[in-house]
């Protein structure tokens, strides 16, 4: 992190902790230069960044001030309390009904599962893809069969190394997106009728995959900021024949929760002691807002039972359907499953992304992407705090691009969903994130799209609709 970003982060933390309050004057550029031994340009860049995030404002001839929030700070939701024990899944039809209703490009995409495609270097990727197609070696149709293109797997292994994890290229299996990775991992360690543990709420695609494979699930309570309750998971492992855990530990969908480093290490060790594999869906791991990335689970001790799934869809190449599994001791089985189902992932796409990772400025792109998402998060949350009822609850995420809202108890999220669509606005209603269709008064909003005037107006309209249902 460069110096102006670090100064901006430290100032933002002071604002978040309440040390600097709305209306307080920030130290002058000259004062900060003197106390931190940095240049005026560095200070100015930091203040511009904070201003772009909506945290401070410049007043002519007076300096910079902490911006007075136009709304109220909302409390965060409490730990979830899923009902009952294991559940046989019947959710796919219900989920498809909801998802099919939000495909219209004219609808404001607050319910989308994807960030804006305009945040990504698709033109540059296209040039690499064109080069890969022109230079395509016919032998690669054989050599790049699963586990996948060797150079791409080497580049992925180097990404792990930068996060403190030593992952062999032979352990990495290239997949057609993270969704295929989830399906392959579940097939590798379960049989129809087996029980797996998931967090509650959870990403609906994991529910659909589990239903398709004939699995039962047990929902584990989670906190919208801190993630899964490890105590509840430990109790479930003692009392139920759990065959695998399907979890999101970094910026989980839908809540944006982040499991802390110490708790993550304990969870991985706990599952190792019970010999229960962890299937970790970690597609948002590069989208962190803090100066340092979260702990990579493959860097923890005893991580051979961890099947770490990620993809380039959320951070680089939406639509390319390129993901992978760092599969640990299950790598050979996943390779065979891949060969017997989809056979291979598109070879020119693998080659193109490998070349981009080597020469395309991936880290520079990621820094810009994180900064943009952080700004969009601040703007969306400020709009929610301004327009939604005071007893709305939200937990501010530290990464990803989702915000989870717990609305007043009288609000039916499914009814709100239908009302919002009539106004040209999509949202993701809470029941699609639960095996038992719980979270009936919760919604997920997406801040992965630029906060245009239309988006800000849509949030204001949603706030009015929520108020009408209270």
Describe the protein's architecture and organization.
The chain is of the alpha/beta class and 470 residues long. It folds into 3 domains: 3-66, Winged helix-like DNA-binding domain superfamily/Winged helix DNA-binding domain (Arc Repressor Mutant, subunit A, Orthogonal Bundle), CATH 1.10.10; 90-118 and 364-469, Aspartate Aminotransferase, domain 1 (Alpha-Beta Complex); 122-361, Type I PLP-dependent aspartate aminotransferase-like (Major domain) (Aspartate Aminotransferase, domain 2, 3-Layer(aba) Sandwich), CATH 3.40.640. The protein contains 16 helices and 15 strands. It has helices spanning 3-16, 29-36, 40-52, 92-100, 122-134, 140-143, 150-162, 177-189, 204-212, 230-239, 261-273, 331-341, 347-359, 362-387, 413-422, 453-469; strands at 56-59, 63-66, 86-88, 172-175, 195-200, 216-223, 227-228, 242-247, 278-281, 306-311, 323-326, 393-394, 402-406, 428-429, 442-446. The strands form 3 sheets. Strands 3, 4, 5, 6, 7, 8, 9, 10 and 11 form a 9-stranded mixed β-sheet that branches. Strands 12-13-15-14 form a 4-stranded antiparallel β-sheet, with helices on one face. The protein has a two-stranded antiparallel ribbon with strand order 1-2. Strand 5, helix 9 and strand 6 form a beta-alpha-beta unit. The protein is globular, with a radius of gyration of 23 Å.
